[in-house]
Amino acid sequence: MTEPSTRTLADALGALRNAAGAARLDHGVAVREGEALAAAVAESAEHAYLDWGEQTGHPDPQAFFDAAHRGRRWRAAPTALLGQLVLNRSPQAATYAEALAEVCRAAQTLGEPNPRTAGNAAVAAAAQLAALAPPPMPATTRPEVAAMLRALHQSSLDLSSLDLSSLDLSSLDLSSLDLPGGLPGIAPDLRPESPGTPPESVQMRPEPVEGQPPGAATSSAHPAESQQVAAKPEPKPKTLDELLAELDALVGLTAVKAEIHRQVAVLRVETLRSKAGLKSPTITRHLVFVGNPGTGKTTVARLVGGIYRALGLLSKGQLIEVDRSELVAGYLGQTAIKTAEVVASAAGGVLFVDEAYSLAGDQYGQESVDTLVKEMEDRRDDLVLIVAGYPDPMAIFIAQNPGLASRFRTTIEFDDYTDEELVRILQQMAQAADYDLDDGCVVRFEAILATTPRGPMFGNARFARNLLEAAIGKHAWRLRDIDEPTVEQLRKLIADDFDEGETENKPPVMSHEQAAEDESAKLEETTSEPG
Questions:
Q1: Same domain? 401 vs 460
Q2: CA 316 to CA 467: how far, in whole Å?
Q3: Residue 376: which pLDDT band, with cuts at 50, 70 and 90?
Q4: 321 Cβ contact list (under 8 Å, min separation 6)
Q5: Domain CATH code at residue 279
Q6: Could you tell me the residue range of the domain that residue 308 belongs to?
Q7: Res. 233 pLDDT band, cuts 50 70 90
Q8: 176 domain residue, yes or no
Q9: Which of 42, 215, 311, 396 pairs as cysteine with 107 (C-beta 3.0–4.6 A)?
Q10: Residue 411: φ, ψ to 5°
Q11: Could you say which of 414, 433, 459 is where a domain stops?
Q12: Do residues 460 and 422 touch, judged by C-beta distance below 8 A?
């Protein structure tokens, strides 16, 4: 487990800015991502908004609550810029992910830290770093080959004299094996690189220096080396097969996966027919995702962006996730401008509007919807809109708006996770954050699930994440008097860490965050909603 950061948030944001520059990202957008992520991590700490405002230069408390609202989604998923870097196999993805993780660790020092902020920081940092992990090895029609390779991977044998060139390994993802020196007899260009580990040719490329134009050579680079490096191609974005493997590796979502595969087949054939000069019906690519919170809608939307790019339907494939507060302004006329700016940032990729039904019922939301419809038409060749929310409100919202009804023909329903699937999700989250769950943790979690009412407000994976965050916070509180805990102690969670009850001398785990969210909601009602 990574030790808590000794950096201030200001230092961490500075490092994030530098990482963004090296990756040729917009500095301002990157810093705003970091500020929002930090606010979401620290929002449960009393007076966190004061430290956050001092270190970010935004002293208005409303700015803190607005940022926390935007950043909560990134406590469980990579930020938009990081997702784009990973999708494009950028050699800077790992550096940027680590900078975001450092922002999470620094954020837990804001205000008066409590166990909840420690849990938030650990899970949010893990979510950023986990974006770099390649998908697990897919199933293969050659199980004996897969078994042999796994055995080699786990052995300490000298493989230098082994020749595997005669084996058909086309259906295997060899990147997950991570064998030192690769597999003998297999050409290096047939060994896929992990998204977080760029090939040597890319690592040799000199980094941009702030104050110099992109691509300028550093003073220490040899001229001949500079010419050679300049000729090296950029890493290729993820392929369609890799993205579909990531989709198939998700827990549950059987019906969703089947529908996405069907969409891929239809769109692929449509593209091939167009290239062949054949008539092809225009198939709308915009989607409606319906389901309760925490059912993987955002994760699938991110994969859809990459899949559409791999099919040649989008130029970039990035995901921009927004809700009403990021589309609607305070006055009539301003909303159209604000919505158009958001759409422009999503051009070439996917604009994901969560709780889209909240745009119905008033003239401000209608102005945003009208702008979205116009932009969908103007950018129909390089923009996909995915709207999401609860099933019944979304059905009414789409049906009542002719402009949307004619553009959204496909609705994908995300079912709630079963208890077994939620256990697997919890275990994956814990593993990504470098924590170990013993059997008692799983039994306690299953007991909590058995007594938790299921309905539209049940959080599904979000429920599991919240319990894990709270458990990590209690784990940190449990070790507070141990000066030098062992690695096992630092990693191991016990059943009592998942106890929802509070014991003496333990500060509240949920009340501060709930208070922050309530305060945020009140402020939004008084400032962002006119009339």
A1: no
A2: 35
A3: confident
A4: 73, 80, 298, 301, 352, 354
A5: 3.40.50.300
A6: 253-414
A7: low
A8: no
A9: 42
A10: -115, 130
A11: 414
A12: yes
Q: Which two tokens stand for residue 459?
A: 């959080």
Task: Find out whether 523 and 323 touch, Cβ atoms under 8 Å.
Answer: no
Q: How many CA atoms lie within 13 A of 405 on its CB side?
A: 8
* Total number of residues shown for the chain: 531
pLDDT in tens, 295-349: 999 999 999 999 999 988 888 888 989 888 889 887 778 899 999 999 998 999 9
What is the Cα–Cα distance from 148 to 266, expressed in whole angstroms? 37
Clarify whether residues 370 and 435 are in a common domain. Answer: no
Q: Of 358, 389, 414, which closes a domain?
A: 414
- Residue 247 included in any domain: no
Is the separation of the CB atoms in 396 and 427 below 8 Å? no
Over 80: is that where the pLDDT of 46 sits?
Answer: yes
Q: Which residues of 211-230 are buried (b: 16+ CB within 10 A; e: fewer)?
A: eeeeeebeeeeeeeebeebe
User: Do 382 and 287 fall into the same domain?
Assistant: yes
pLDDT in tens, 190-230: 444 444 444 333 333 333 333 333 344 333 344 444 444 44
Q: How many helices and strands (H and E) does the chain possess?
A: 22, 7
Q: Are 371 and 257 part of one and the same domain?
A: yes
Residues 289/300, Cβ–Cβ less than 8 Å = yes
- Say what the alpha-carbon torsion angle 171, 173, 179, 184 is, to the nearest 10 degrees: 30
φ/ψ region of 479 (left if φ > 0, alpha if ψ in -120 to 50, else beta) reads alpha
Query: What pLDDT is attached to residue 441?
Result: 92
Number of domains in the chain: 3
What CATH number does residue 456 fall under?
Answer: 1.10.8.60
Question: Nearest to residue 58, comparing CAs of 38, 76, 41, 75?
Answer: 38
Q: Does residue 143 sit within a domain?
A: no
The answer to the question of residue 506 being in a domain is: no
